[in-house]
Amino acid sequence: MDTTLSTSAVEIIQLALAPIFLIVGIGQMVNVATGRVARVIDRARWFEEEARKNASRIDQKALKEISTLNKRMRLANWSINFLIASALIICIDVILLMVNGLVSTSLDVTILVMFMLSMMFLTGGIIAFFLEVSLATATLKISSSRLKSDT
Q: Is the pTM higher than 0.85?
């Protein structure tokens, strides 16, 4: 049995490798975003427990933080959804790349449109992630005078 690949098969595999690395990068971003969701959930559960123990501790400042946690959760979920959609479209694009190398019909335009669509979803995911991180850091302004009084 002959185990050598034709040059066209090797070229098809080479073409498919770049999007595969992109999927790996997107997977890492999804991992980071889900970690942020976990932290938001942990903080929300802490507030829930505090409210059960002593409802009077949930003051206006705590309510504002809870509202911010809701916004952060929404943004992180949007980020994850956009990133997963981008990865899914890239998977379809890789399949189309392979099919394009096997059939005589040209799927070049479809492949390019799918890739641009995946980049739009990736951009949406990065923007939502940026907004979530910005919101998280904006609500965590620690004044130096407060730090000095605690020590």
A: no
What's the confidence (pLDDT) of residue 59?
A: 81
The domain total for the chain is 1
Q: Is 1 helix (H, G, I), strand (E, B) or coil?
A: coil
* Residue at 14 is within a domain: no
Asked if the structure places residue 13 within a domain, the reply is no
Cα four-point dihedral sign 142, 143, 144, 145:
negative
Does a structural domain hold residue 151?
A: no
Asked if residue 106 is part of any domain, the answer here is yes
Structural domain boundaries enclosing 98: 19-140
At residue 147, the pLDDT reads: 57
DSSP string computed for 16-72 = HHHHHHHHHHHHHHHHHHHHHHHHHHHHHHHHHHHHHH-GGG--HHHHHHHHHHHHH
Please tell me the predicted confidence (pLDDT) of residue 85. Answer: 98
Q: What distance in Å separates the CA atoms of residue 18 and residue 114, rounded to the nearest whole number?
A: 15
The stretches in the chain having pLDDT less than 70 are 1-7, 141-151
